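Why run this: before we spend reagent on co-expression, it is cheaper to look at a predicted model of the complex and decide which construct boundaries make sense. The entries below are exactly what would go into the expression plan.
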Amino acid sequence: MMRDEAIGLGKRMAGMDIRSRGFTERTQLETAVNSLLSGVEPLPHESVASALSCHRTLASPLLAPRNVPSFARSAMDGFALSAICITGASESSPAILRVVGESLAGHPPNFTVRPGGAARIMTGAALPAGTNAVVPIEACRQLGSTVEIHEAVVPGRHVCAVGEDFKQGQIVLNAGRRLLPHDLAVLSALSLRDVSVIRQPRVLILVTGDEILPAFSEPAADRICDANSPMLQALIQRDGGQVTAVAIVPDNPSDLCAALAANHSADLILISGGSSVGQEDHAPAVLSKMGTLDVHGLALRPASPAGFGRLNNGTRVMLLPGNPVSCFCAYELLAGRLVRRLAGRHDSLPHTVKHYPLAQDVKSVQRRTDFMRIRIVNGMVETIPGGASMLSTVAMADGFILISHDSAGCSSGDLVAVYLFENA
Amino acid sequence: MMRDEAIGLGKRMAGMDIRSRGFTERTQLETAVNSLLSGVEPLPHESVASALSCHRTLASPLLAPRNVPSFARSAMDGFALSAICITGASESSPAILRVVGESLAGHPPNFTVRPGGAARIMTGAALPAGTNAVVPIEACRQLGSTVEIHEAVVPGRHVCAVGEDFKQGQIVLNAGRRLLPHDLAVLSALSLRDVSVIRQPRVLILVTGDEILPAFSEPAADRICDANSPMLQALIQRDGGQVTAVAIVPDNPSDLCAALAANHSADLILISGGSSVGQEDHAPAVLSKMGTLDVHGLALRPASPAGFGRLNNGTRVMLLPGNPVSCFCAYELLAGRLVRRLAGRHDSLPHTVKHYPLAQDVKSVQRRTDFMRIRIVNGMVETIPGGASMLSTVAMADGFILISHDSAGCSSGDLVAVYLFENA
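The model came back. Tokens follow.
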């Protein structure tokens, strides 16, 4: 039986060209990214409550449905009047007007100011009919039912005119804008209860492996907690996606097939683990069977066993290595770009990039991209050694550097681009 | 009656030293920030589910409660064996071992490998008793119940040793760390269901003004929608705080007193509007009455009517101008720092800063800080004209610049620090 098993394994190895592809030929990162994003458009739009729209991507240009302000209002506390009534007024030669009423914010004035009259007015209050300017309180002296005006003003002075901030019909924000906190103020000022945004990509996470316990669970002999899905969930949320479910799938093709087939609503499925070319790595074969495996095996360290393709129903599937650092690398350099593209965001890396000199020589090999965890120590970049299973190498890192496929390494003192974790 | 009212107003103006302070003396921004943050410590810690801890601030150093890995496991698919059994093995002179079993991930091996034996092993599987190294499958050739081993290895080769990633008791993450997506992987790998983090500051938002309609509501004559609270909520969330409630409060002291008194759980109360020195600006006087008004009136454009203090029960209160641009400015330069400090974050501005040359001369006055909305056009900084009520000036901005109180302006071509909105 052991012989049969060995022969069986050999058959499987020989019969699956994807396995040999994974080993004999590795796709360059740039080629893989181009293939992954080729023809990918942002998802369709949906309407969401403006109050919940922060960080969402505007699906179409935002037009002002009305003028803001919708009424002429005072920008100051003072007196509203007709500018022509106080032509030439000054401190030495004040104009004297009758005070005929008061306009307070939120209390529409129901009187008209005739020539020779003025109205007390507060910031934000509507200008009474018959007035076109405001003189600030500091330049006025009220004496009972009259007021001395100590400076002349031009019509419109200290008045927020109708449509001064936003004119009905104007484009206020462009399509594709990721809504910022202050944009919510704009939406509210325009009385827009809802806003049309790009739908959030729905992502299903399948974590494969008989040894995998649910995230954060109690330890058990010879088994490990799912570290990847909590990380992926937080990254997907960062990138504007929405995780619809996380499922742990045993190491066998039929369970994985069933998990993939069961899903009909995901825009993207991430499979963590089982992506390589070993006996228990079923994901590439299953994806080949249920759709297409477009790329498998990358010239990328430490995420060479990554791959991607589509199910026959069109759903995109990304194969992420099970080792947490490899999984992180493959998400950041590949899957995350896809999530952002689907969410209508720019697909470039979201990290703040700063340049620092290397504290040491860094070796790589040509025709492979290296994702290296680094620390900034005394303003210089130190790489953190350790394998793809070592989460500690990420936990202690300030960010990462990428050694391009056309470089065999860098020298101490070279300025390198550091992708910082802090603000990503 | 008009006379009485006018006299009454005069009395109020004369009687309130805070009003004259607001006008005659304005606190420098830096002085105000120092006063605002003086003695402010991060809030106490609380325990939260690790799954929900992303972006929270670690309250104490995170110690590894156990070794990770907790068992020696294979880093490769191959054969587990005792390294000493294959000393000198090579392709031309392979060692031949008996295959005595198989170790799969998640299926603990219940056998012992004696000298001269080997076990098939998969990545992630536990090393059987009696083995201390793994030879990758590529360097092995299984023939029925025996296996040819084509390379020698040292003990520990391709084995993730117990505690190799995290050693029980070691500090894994430092206190004060803002938890990143990949830190959640660390928490899960350590089987930490909960984590101790700084409590989120609870913020109450009071929006004052008889003219204020609820955010995003239908327009009504002479009234305006609350634009500030949706913006403040998004900013507070960005800064690690939590908005407990938003209330719209009419323009009178008793309602404002009641709204302030009703709150017992907020760490911070933001009052939007009514912060200046006009007839309807009740917030400074109410705060003075119910506690202390520490600073009122800033040498800051466009947020000079801002102020802050504390209620007698110790709750911090921030007075933000009602004009949305002023409110935004006062939040970003003052209140936001306080929220971040309370949340255990760094209180510096969270924006990405880049330097660009000015496209034009920019005028300011000495002894006043100017917060100017700007656009980047052809790699140069253009300021956006428009008053504090003009939300459009923020909506079209890429960020802002600050003209310091010790500068009377900058010249075209000067390199200035731009605080970019994009990644804040």
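Chain B touches chain A through 96 residues (CB under 8 Å). Chain B is about 20% helix and 30% strand. Bring this page to Monday's planning discussion.
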